Amino acid sequence: MSDDLTTARTDWTREEIATLFDLPFNDLLFEAQTIHRAHHPRNQVQLSTLLSIKTGGCVEDCGYCNQSVHAETGLKAEKLMDVRAVLQSAAQAKDAGSGRFCMGAAWRSPKDRDMPAIIEMVKGVRAMGLETCMTLGMLTEKQSQQLAAAGLDYYNHNIDTSPENYANVITTRTFADRLETLDNVRAAGINVCSGGIVGMGELREDRVGFLHALAMMPHPESVPINALVPVKGTVLGDMLADTPLAKIDEIEFVRTVAVARIIMPLSMVRLSAGRESMSEACQALCFMAGANSIFTGDRLLTTANAGDDKDAALFAKLGVEPMQASTNAHLEAAE
Question: Of 166, 212, 274, 318, which sits with the fewest C-beta atoms within 10 Å of its C-beta?
């Protein structure tokens, strides 16, 4: 297996991926852990911090998002944060052990007038020795090139779900729009962070289709797997909050992580949103299944997260250590 993500296998069929989902659970985890150990440091998990640098007021109608203007959650829209405040938060994240600092803005796409401040944030965070990641919505070729010139390491743009299920979640942009931004980011030489959300009422075949879509493209260097956090006032929050579908079965969630690790063996697989409601056993199984990155801290954009103290206690129980940024071969290769 090549250590170049661009040459990793991209010819997976949906039938093959469905077969992996159907494996006996222990066999699936054994295969996932074997592949993980062949390509990644064992018992190490990358700590990342996510900061909302511009909250609320997004014109998109993503059914899961409380930052959409279509949601009625009482969330107040805010302007883009001051560069100095962002850098202060990044310094605090580094002191807490994070190796990557991710910045998210609730936009359909950034305006040209926003780019100078965004670029200063990237340069400032990178100067601290942290990996940089941003999620700003859709990007043009020019904006992607500007971020690359500033030294942005990763750009996050999730595909969210399967192509077939996409219109059930979002109607204000298409699945193809998502792919266009990913193409622009790759062409600019920025590492791609792209994953999605499970537990939105989708079927397993949608989880198969979601992972298939990721595996058929040049594999993202980072693949976040989120469990839906139902927020009252959002379309999906209101639809699923009082139903058994509101929380995906933990074994099924672990299966999703394991299959992602197997079919994208060189990617960082991040255990993302929804972790605050997962049991320690579920998180431990996710690490066994090949997850090797988490968001730490008390907040994920606008929703709760597990918190530094709980993460440190869990790592101590499991004998897991925070991964140092310098061990990330993908970043070193990019530089």
Answer: 318
Cβ density class 135-145: b for 16+ within 10 Å, e for less: bbbbbeeebbb
Look at residues 61, 98, 106, 108 and name the one whose alpha carbon lies nearest to residue 81. Answer: 106
Amino acid found at 322: P
Q: Any bridge partners for residue 105, and if so which?
A: 54
Query: Which runs of consecutive H residues, i.e. helices, occur in the chain?
Result: 14-21, 25-39, 83-95, 115-127, 141-150, 175-187, 204-216, 235-240, 250-263, 280-288, 308-318, 329-334
Contact yes or no for 39/5 (Cβ under 8 A): no
Specify the amino acid at residue 262.
I
d(CA 102, CA 120): 14
CA distance 260 to 248: 16
Cα–Cα distance for residue pair 176/199, rounded to 1 Å: 22
Rounded to two decimals, the pTM is 0.86
**Which secondary-structure segment (H or E) carries 275?**
none
Q: Which amino acids are annotated catalytic?
A: 58, 62, 65, 102, 133, 193, 270
Residue 271, token pair as written in the block: 């255990």
**CA distance readout (Å), 317 to 201, 226, 283, 313:** 33, 23, 12, 6
Q: Residue 70's pLDDT is what?
A: 65
50 CB contacts (<8 Å, ≥6 apart)?
102, 103, 104, 295, 297, 299, 300, 301
